[in-house]
Give the backbone structure.
Amino acid sequence: MTASTIPTRPPYSVRRAWRERRDVLACTSFIVDSGVALPLTSRIRLVKEAYAASFTIDSPHRQEEILTFVRAILAIPRDATGVIVEAGCYKGSSTAKFSHAAAATGRELFVFDSFQGLPANDEPHDKNIFGRPESFKHGAYCGTLAEVKANVARFGRIQCCRFVAGWFADTMPTFRTPIAAAYLDVDLAASMRECLKHLYPLLREGGTMCTHDGHLPLVIEVLDNDEFWRNEVGFPKPAMPGLGKQKLVTIVKPRSRR
């Protein structure tokens, strides 16, 4: 097995899906929650497509995590400007799921990925905060652009997606589009630095940025570094509830004081 084909977790099985009760409860809540600005039939379809994607595509995330960001997309005020951004899409399972919410709100979903797997790196990852081993080798977690597009076309709304292929350090510095919400699943501390430097300044005030890497000590060091935020991002370090305690960390960009 080559590095590029190393799976993080196998696609869902029915047994696994129903064993993960938090995911089932999150999906149930999403369907019946009247506070979600989406018709009931659309909520049911989104959950159905989410499980269909997870049954078919290697999906190293929980439905609960995905729905947290979907809710953030649906909560964006209609008059707010900005696109949705996903950094790191692997095989496109998360992209397909986010694309339904993007389409429902009339927003474009920009997907940044190398489509070649992880870049070469010498980051000394060992264990995550839960004590489980982590390894991020060059080329791992690779989904080709053709593969990702096929998966999104099958399970999502590809018409609202814009795919940006290349290393973050090459593609993000020239990105200038205002961002309404962003989801970062990039694994490496260096990649997180690139995302924060180039994407956070574009995030609207009050906008949500979620990271799926809150369980990785090297990434936590970046997120918790006041000097990095001040000198390289150009903003004070925002509040990050749950940092160092959970995998999914949500950042809400503070509104400027007037």
